[in-house]
Prior knowledge:
Layout: H1 16-30, E1 37-38, H2 50-63, H3 79-90, E2 102-105, H4 108-114, E3 125-129, H5 133-142, E4 157-161, E5 179-183, H6 195-208, E6 211-215, E7 241-246, H7 248-251, E8 259-262, E9 268-270, E10 276-278, H8 279-290, H9 296-306, H10 308-334, E11 339-341, E12 347-351, H11 358-369, E13 371-372, E14 374-375, E15 386-390, H12 395-409
Helix pairs in contact: 2-9, 3-9, 4-5, 10-12
The protein binds pyridoxal-5'-phosphate (PLP).
Pyridoxal-5'-phosphate binds next to α4 and α7.
Amino acid sequence: MAHVNEHYRSLPAGYLFPEIGRRVRAYQQAHPDAKLIRLGIGDVVLPLVPAVIEALHRAVDELATPEGFKGYAPDQGYDFLLDAIQKHDYRTRGVEIAGDEIFVSDGSKQDSGNIQEIFGLDCKVLVSDPVYPVYVDTNVMAGRAGKADAAGRHAGILYLAANEANGFAPDPPAERADVAYLCSPNNPTGSVLDKARLERWVAWARKHDAVLIFDAAYDAYIGDPTLPRSIYEIEGARACAIEMRSFSKRAGFTGLRCAYTVVPRECTGTTAAGERVPLRELWARRMSTKFNGVPYLVQRAAEAVLLPEGRKQADEQVAFYRENARRLGQGLTAAGFRVFGGVHAPYLWVRTAGGLSSWDFFDRLLAEAHVVATPGAGFGPAGEGFFRLSAFNSRENIEEALARIQRVFGRR
Ligand SMILES: *Cc1c(COP(=O)(O)O)cnc(C)c1O
């Protein structure tokens, strides 16, 4: 008899985005003429930049020749990409990362979901609430989280409320945990951790011998050069932090798929016997066992994003989305909404109108403005009373969505 993994039964019943999809489909079927604007799921809309397309074409032609053909990629990525990452993502910020500390992968969603495998099942996990659901759900699947209570909180996970009082960027708690997930710039709240706050997190991790999982999928959206882009800009972080970055939101790679994870040599965990083990070795073992590398074509495309021409073009796309976010923020504020985020992130985190619940507001926005948002409650109990809007859309759709929202909810 094939018993199922019972831990899957502890997962929240409906994953957020399928439920949104179900409600949107039902509405569209009942109102076929309604022109919906989707500001819900955070997926990019602009095509790949010319430098990336050229790199892809070149790589395709190379593969067609006996000398240029490539089979399996090196375990951790091709040297040309590792070098470009070291140079452009780290050395420019005064950070030295060795090539063998970088693991190129096909996505930060996978990496942030898989990283928990290298930790013991007895590890106490810390997340913020609201949270990117992947961090929690993958720990639930592994059996680290236990059953959820009526509010949807799992007994084995420590939740830190991100709210207006702490600028949606909570400080470390007084209590200990073993593995803490930090996402900055944040999905869903659009908040960003500044240097002082990151220093407090690193100090907390060092004090409790904890590991920080730093998800910087949105680092390209940081507009202020004094804000850290990498956690390794903080002294002592090499000993306690794993960092993840992605080409998805930075250069439109959500379909092409490329990301990387950095595990510094100094970052260790402990065995039951008390022996220190470099986490890098565990992650290397995990990747070589379960992953066979990112396609050559895609690694060449990612390299192009880091070279001057591609970087300039990708930065223009990011600037375009940031301008969308700025307009959304300004327009919603003018309409009387309380708006957070959207400055160093493509997401706006907004209080619902009239004290409505997240899902009630979602339904109202859909029915009256024909705009699809993401209900804040879908990211955790502390997200109740908020909704998330994504700036990943055309300028025209952003302006049209704003006009509709202002028409429905007025300029209060
Ligand atoms: C979009 C996103 C990612 C990136 O995922 P990919 O798998 O690289 O496309 C990672 N973390 C968060 C919080 C995200 O929103």
